Predict the structure.
Amino acid sequence: MLTQAPRGTTDIFGDYMTAWQMLEGTMRGLCKDFSFNEIRTPIFEHTELFSRGVGETTDIVQKEMYTFMDKGDRSISLKPEGTAGVVRAYLERNLYADTQPTKLFYLTPTFRYEKPQAGRMRQFHQFGVELFGSDHATADAEVIALAAQMLERLNIKNVELNINSLGGPECREKYNALLKVFLTNNKDGLCSTCKDRLEKNPLRILDCKNESCNTIIQDAPLMLDHLGDDCKAHFEELLALLDAMEIKYSVNPWIVRGLDYYTKTVFEFISKEIGAQGTVCGGGRYNGLIEECGGSPTPAVGFGAGIERLLMTIEASNGKIQYEKSVDLYIGTMGAAATRKAASLVNTLRKNNINAEMDLIGRSVKAQMKYANKIGARYSIILGENELSENKGLLKNMQDSEQIEISLDEIINFMSSKKNI
């Protein structure tokens, strides 16, 4: 067990880390273009934050959270999603006092105790954005546009935006009553989990993947048919904005998401490349969450996307990601004097932002050149007694094997000129 990671976790290194860094760089660049600022919150919070924020009746709170009592006898949970912690920070750090809207993004580890499978881990990482302080459909459209551009920049193909409205508290209450009557009349066909949901939160039954439940809900009343005037106008304006931005979508009345805090807009981007578990990012509006967590009523909208799932989808869309090696120059050495000269050159090259490597374990010259090939060095040079006495050597282009004679004093200038070619 000492040499095995806990089930549902993994180590990030090598090419996988390179892919990770590429994706994170894309996220940060995208958020900069949309004027979203990064926030980092703790990986654990008071359990009550998630119970009240995510929802007591959700599978996340009831079945999937990592919860423990700390030494102060306080109930603490590792965060299962990113939004609740950002809401807590928005209130605690008085971000509502700044000019609104407040636009934040995060990249964070999250934790859920569920059965590990492709794209789903017990420790996974989430990218998310949250926009506080606007109830206008333009805010929803901006968040959806950011998600759409994220997928475009990551070259994720065959993705469909599904969108729905869950209404506000008043029209939701009326709809829930209608839905409960319908589902009660069809209770015998519901799975055991949904029979329990029927009393606590009937809307969640629309999210069930059970075949029998799916058959029943196809005939259920639709929330879209029972929206109040304000919610209906909001949804229609959002669709008009998406049309104006040329963002394609499908209205899907069965999209409800798995968290209790959503109001009005909910959406998911679904990939056809990764099978049944096809959602690559999803979110919506949560106008009541900040008030639920102790703040003043504040409109908000956002989305989250799993990093591991995005990487899996990128490879499903484009094949295995190929990475260019980043070593600019490998300096081979023969003898102690050459090693000292190489150490000096490598140190100076690195000060000039040039990625240089040299032998660190006493390999033969042949083994050093084999290693230079393996790490993808663009150029190499071997230093020995002759090279040191003449202060010059043969610089080899590792791609086409072309060699040029170069003064050791000119290596830095030459490599700097080739840096961005």
Summary: Residues 14-168+228-318 form a domain with the BirA Bifunctional Protein; domain 2 fold (CATH 3.30.930.10).
